[in-house]
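S.,

Sequence below, as promised.
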Amino acid sequence: MKTLYVTPVGTVAYWILDSIENAASGWFPFPVRRLPPLPLAESACDAGRGQYMSVEIMKALARILPPDTARLLGVTEVDLAIPVLSFLFGQAQLDGPIALISLRRLRQEFYHLPANEALLRDRAVKEAFHELGHTFGLTHCRDAACVMSLATHIGLVDAKKSRYCASCGMHVARRLVDENGERK
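The prediction came back faster than expected:
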């Protein structure tokens, strides 16, 4: 049976991983298992920007894919970017098995506000579902409440729900059926 794996990239608090795994196991029909932490490769660090290049981390995730992987979600505390964007909440392979989220800008502390674990949990689940949605071929949704809506700032993350709209949810459900070999 295919498995949805979650792995910390660098050091990540277990309670946040537990929250993501619990939410994923409630929606996706795969067993959800945690892999050991993946060390953060310094080669992914862009010292000039003070950020990590997400593509380099995703390449490292691809090298540890277990053979029974349905999806692999990396979770990290470092700030992510790609050359053309100043930051990313996450990134994923469209129609591929790899997704990655960063908790850095999901934390209230990033915005010089007091820590809020409940809000961080909510934001992390939204971003995990968003990036996993891309792995099922979803692009950004026009429905601002859908977890697949584009979020270019934290207010947009907070405005969306932690679930797919009917259209995006049906797309993921169809893909899950196709991938499980029940229909082609």
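The longest helix spans residues 117-135.

Coffee later?
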